[in-house]
């Protein structure tokens, strides 16, 4: 009985066609870890989507407003639009070639929720629809004009290499097949940007920091950075930064704000 039980408990590899023993396939430990990471990421992604659906359902609930609130919101929108047109006429932007850097980091600051449709459209094009999110932009005539249009609702400047690297390493998330993922795997970066010669995180940082030939694809691959609320909340003043407010061009001073929000 004992010997029969021992024989039954043994693992006997199956016979192949030629009568030889067939070995079980060997799976590397790194592959098993990668499978587990992918499974955990899929679970987190499902939970994120469920939370997003719940949040959208809550936001779409009907809220009754008084007529005075509609009138105030309409006047604020029209005032913002008129001020925007005045800025475009009066303010003269320097040529993009004369700027000290080709790389701009723009941050959406707290402000009015009810925006004029034209201003909201420009913010959507700049991918700054949510408060305290930041994006990398290339300094071109079109970009500078768009930033001037939405100046009361954003602040921007020229980031240094240290902050570019820390932003991407700490808060960087990418898009692949319309799904966000953390930048923890060079394989996913290579799959998304390998055709442009960007195969790892260091290549991505270099392309953004130097505003390389594939900057447009690299910046669109990165999701807008979700920044934390600073200890001293932004004053939410629509005045330019140089006049004591929080909005507009900060130049190199943007690095101090990035360090607080990163």
TrEMBL record:
One of its GO terms (cellular component) is cytosolic large ribosomal subunit. Signal peptide: none annotated. Residues 104-154 form the Large ribosomal subunit protein uL30-like ferredoxin-like fold domain. GO terms for molecular function: RNA binding; structural constituent of ribosome. It comes from the Eukaryota. Keywords: Ribonucleoprotein, Ribosomal protein. Residues 27-91 form the Large ribosomal subunit protein uL30 N-terminal eukaryotes domain. GO terms for biological process: maturation of LSU-rRNA from tricistronic rRNA transcript (SSU-rRNA, 5.8S rRNA, LSU-rRNA). Gene3D superfamilies: Ribosomal protein L30, ferredoxin-like fold domain. Pfam families: Ribosomal_L30, Ribosomal_L30_N. Belongs to the universal ribosomal protein uL30 family. This is Ribosomal protein L30 ferredoxin-like fold domain-containing protein. It comes from Panicum hallii. The lineage of its organism: Eukaryota, Viridiplantae, Streptophyta, Embryophyta, Tracheophyta.
């Amino acid at each position: 009985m004992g010997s029969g039980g021992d024989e039954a408990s043994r693992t006997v590899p199956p016979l192949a066609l030629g009568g030889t023993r067939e070995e079980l396939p060997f799976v590397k430990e790194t592959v098993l870890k990668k499978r587990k990471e992918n499974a955990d990421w899929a679970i987190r992604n499902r939970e994120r989507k469920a939370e997003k659906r719940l949040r959208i359902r809550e936001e779409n609930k009907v809220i009754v407003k008084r007529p005075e609130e509609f009138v105030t919101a309409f006047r604020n929108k029209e005032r913002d639009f008129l001020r925007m047109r005045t800025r475009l006429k009066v303010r003269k932007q320097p040529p993009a070639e004369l700027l000290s850097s080709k790389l701009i980091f723009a941050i959406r600051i707290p402000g009015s929720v009810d925006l004029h449709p034209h201003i909201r459209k420009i913010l959507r094009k700049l991918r700054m629809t949510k408060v305290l999110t930041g994006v990398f932009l290339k300094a071109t005539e079109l970009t500078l004009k768009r930033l001037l249009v939405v100046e009361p609702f954003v602040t921007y400047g020229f980031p240094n290499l240290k902050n570019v690297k820390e932003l991407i390493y700490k808060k960087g998330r990418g898009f692949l097949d319309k799904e966000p993922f953390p930048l923890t795997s060079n394989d996913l970066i290579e799959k998304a940007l390998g055709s442009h010669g960007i195969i790892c995180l260091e290549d991505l940082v270099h392309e953004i920091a130097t505003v390389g030939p594939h900057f447009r694809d690299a910046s669109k691959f990165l999701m807008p950075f979700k920044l934390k609320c600073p200890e001293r909340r932004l004053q939410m003043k629509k005045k330019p930064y140089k006049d004591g407010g929080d909005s507009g061009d900060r130049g190199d001073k943007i690095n101090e704000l990035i360090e607080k929000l990163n």
